[in-house]
Structures are given as C-alpha cells and as structure tokens.
Amino acid sequence: MVWLAVARESLDTSGMSTPKDSSGPTTPEPLFLRGEPSQPAVRTPVRGACALFGIAVSQSDRWLAAAQDNGLVTIYQPEIAAMGELEGPLLVGAGHEGRVCCVAFVPNDLTNSAGEAYQCAVSGGVDGAIRTWHLGEESLNDEIRHHDSSVMCVAFTPSAELLISGSEDGTVAIYDWSAREVVRRIITPSRTVLGIDVSPDGRLIAFTGLDRAAHVWTVAGVRVGSFSKDNFDATWGVRFLDDERLVLSSGDGGVSVWTPARSTSELIYRAEDPRYTIHGLAVRSDRRQIAFGYRNDVILVALGDRTADVRRMHTGEVNGVAYLADGRVASVADDGGLFVWSSHTPGAAPELMLHAGALPR
C-alpha cells in the first residue's frame, strides 16, 4: 500500500495555468506526491473527478476520509480546506483493487514510534480486503483478509477493542482489533450485508442487507431480534439512536425508528418517489437530527417534529453522509464532491466544497 501525500510547504505552482477568468483570486489545483517514501516523488496534478462511496470523520473533526470508486482512500483536513489552501485531499492511499465501499476511523488515538498521538482509518473494498491507514506511522499500513467477497461496511466498538465488518458474502465478522484476528463470525439471513452499526455502550451490533430486514446481535454472538416489513425493499442503512432504538433506511425510500425491546417501529420519513434508494444514514450527536442521501440531495430530518430540510448542491447521487462532532454534516456523491454543511441553518449552502481527483494508477 502506498500513501500519495501532499507536502503543503513545498507546493510548486510555477508553470501552472490559471483560469481564463482572472477577476478574482484563484486557488491552484492541489499537487500530490506519488511514490514510496524511499523513492523520488513525482508531482502529479489532479484532473477530473471520481465517484465517492463512503465518508468517515475522525476524533475532534481533524480528518475526513472518503472511499473512492477507483480504489483509493482520500484523506482531507477540514481546517486547512476552510482556509482556502487546498480543495482536494491531503493524503491518498492506494492499495485496493477496485472500488472502495466503506471507510471508518479508529475511535481513539494511537501512538507512533516517536511517542506522538495519531489517528488510523480502515477501509473495505470489492477486493474483499480491509486495509488499515495509519496517518502517523505509514510503515504499519496493512490489510486484513477474511471475507470471500466485497466488504460493504465497517464499524468499531466505542472502545476500539473490536472491529466489525459486513460483506457481500452474507457474513458479519468480529475482529480483535489489536490482534487483527477474527474472534466471531455471524452467518446472516442476507445474501449481502449492506449496513452495520454498534450501540453506544458497545454491547450490541445491528446489521441490514438484501433480506429486507434489520438484525440485532450481541458482540458475544447472541441474537437479540429482527425487524422487517412486507413493503421493505433492501434495508441499506442502520444507526443506533441510543442503546435501545435504531434508525433504518430501506430501498423503497422510507426511514423508520425501530425499538427492538418493544417490537415497535415508526415511519419518520417517506420519499416522494419510492423507486430511488436512500443511501447513507447518520445521527447527530445530540440525537435530535438524522441525515441521509436521496438522489442528488442531502436530507436532514428533525426527530422532534419530523420536519425535513433538503440541501441541493450535488450533481450526482449522494452515497454517504456523516456528522462531524461539531454538528456539521459531510456528504459524498457520484459527482466526486465532498461537501460539508451546517446542520443548524435550514437550506444553507455547503460551507466547504472539496473534490476527489481521479489520480492515475
């Protein structure tokens, strides 16, 4: 695996063309350094865009990670982007063969060989691999191979003791994160596992898939319950609202809150056209709002009065959303855009509009 890293201090913009419209300040295309650390780096300008399929936020909102259609994992830093210095990623990880489907950050800091704290992300792809990306100790980047098919979703327990993955092979794997070893495997009723989440107390895992149902198990491998409806299409997304309630999104454009202990559910959103799937699902930290993608829109729904706030700026289907700790929402789409929105100002335009370049392989 290779990091393609941006060196901000050494960006050389000489010889770069500027837009024909020079009426205002211009931001040069970001340049990426390509090659192994021990080899001479070659500056490669970004051209074009690549569809994005997953988004994750690190501790303290320091980093955003996106899963790309071209096998790359891109890492952004919102603070630097907000200063207008870069529009693209700071780091790009190459290693997956084919589409990267999902990405997640380890919930706590790791420590590198110099004793410095750093953060780590993991990604799953159609190559069946889970890859680790150590932002502070590149030599530790490695891969985990267990699934026989695409890894569609990954999640950590809050303590980071366990990593959970769901696959197109219909299984859920539970790993001892420190040992990188599978400690438990759940054979699900679904042909494909599409969504996974872990309860805030780290005791339960929930997963959804093509069997049109949602399932809850303990991390110890005990089945708690399942939920389905006749009118469900594939259930794409699942997120715990708290230790008892979950939010589910189905392929027919519906979003529901399910309480397993009471065997009850409540529909809180129905899309205008059920032919389109809801992709991406996130819950704000105060549990008062959820976000998801529907066609080219990012939709925010207040859980109190069920009002929907529609954000329109993407020009391709929205595939993933995630809340930052400060309450903002990040979204990624087929248009290659990574946008960051305020979740408190209805109808507001994105605060940040970043992009993913289609780097040559």
Overview of this protein structure:
The chain has one helix at residues 78-82, and strands spanning 2-5, 31-34, 42-45, 52-57, 64-68, 72-76, 91-94, 100-105, 110-111, 117-118, 120-125, 129-134, 143-145, 151-156, 162-167, 171-176, 181-187, 193-198, 204-209, 213-218, 223-228, 235-240, 246-250, 254-259, 264-270, 278-283, 289-294, 297-302, 308-312, 318-323, 329-333, 337-341, 352-355. The chain is mainly beta and 361 residues long. The strands form nine sheets. It has a five-stranded antiparallel sheet, with no helix packed on it. A four-stranded antiparallel sheet has the order 8-11-12-13, with no helix packed on it. Mean pLDDT is 83; it is low at 5-47.
